[in-house]
Amino acid sequence: MDVLVTGAYGRCGTALIDHLHDRDAYEFSYYNRSDRSDDHPYGGYETIVGNVTEAEKLRAASEGRDAMVHMAAYPYTDGDWTDVFEPNIVGMYNALEAARTEAIESFVFLSTNHVVGKYETEHAPELYSRDYDLVIDHSDPVRPDSYYGASKSFGEDLGRYYVEEFEYPKHFYALRVGTVNMPEYDHPYGNAEAGVDDGSFERGSPEYERAVARLKCTWQSRRDFAHQISCCLTDDDVEYGTFYGVSDNRRRWFDLEHARSRIRYDPQDDGEQWDGPPE
């Protein structure tokens, strides 16, 4: 399967590279705003340098592909409309247009848990405890918590329109990803340890413990993330689906049964298995 990946060198794209790039079933090409030097940890891969706002360049990069994994976006909840408009709105339209005109069968869209982030705003921090009674599934109303979340909700809606209105893409998968980190922080203490490393707070502080509690809910390990992408790429049944992207965390408030039953997602990790950061 020939797959184009946009926004390839962020936290999620590099997880895909680490766990899927060498599989015989896939031939990946990476579309990114910049390349990486050969001595970079993610250097040496086939990279098409371009922005998703460049419609013709993205369309040319899409020629002959079987699937697109669209990750390129402005990813921060504190951004304003100007921040999200071109990368998340125009870029999403350009990616779907490229898939339509170049007859790409499957489109995997990196959405976000912030599409339903107001549920967390309403219920936190009690929501982070193991026994809190709330589960959000794919049928619950969207409640974006930011312009970023709203832009991703738009992307989900536009994807539904394309698969129902046009011949291509034939399959659209929106993954409402929780928290995927770079390798050094790929554990449920990752955000807390990053806060210690950048001087935001001390280990064992209330801020540290809250960061741990939240990540034990929202963490998606890099291997589970890559596995979920693979589940979408190998599926040929779903026309349109939204799926939550978290590991099998006992504290999670996001449903996984829909992903298990529709795309055979089988996460291996659980934040509760960790009682401290790695030594």
Shape: globular
CATH class: Alpha Beta
- What is the CATH homologous superfamily assignment? NAD(P)-binding Rossmann-like Domain
- The percentage helix is 25-40%
Rg from alpha-carbon coordinates: 18 Å
**CATH architectural group:** 3-Layer(aba) Sandwich
**Whole-number tally of structural domains:** 1
How many E-type strands? 7
| End-to-end C-alpha gap | 39 Å
Helices, strands, pairings?
Layout: E1 2-6, H1 11-20, E2 27-32, E3 47-49, H2 55-62, E4 67-70, H3 81-101, E5 106-112, H4 117-123, H5 147-165, E6 171-177, H6 190-197, H7 206-218, H8 222-234, E7 240-245, H9 257-263
Parallel strand pairs: 1-2, 1-4, 2-3, 4-5, 5-6, 6-7
Helix pairs in contact: 1-8, 2-3, 3-5, 6-7
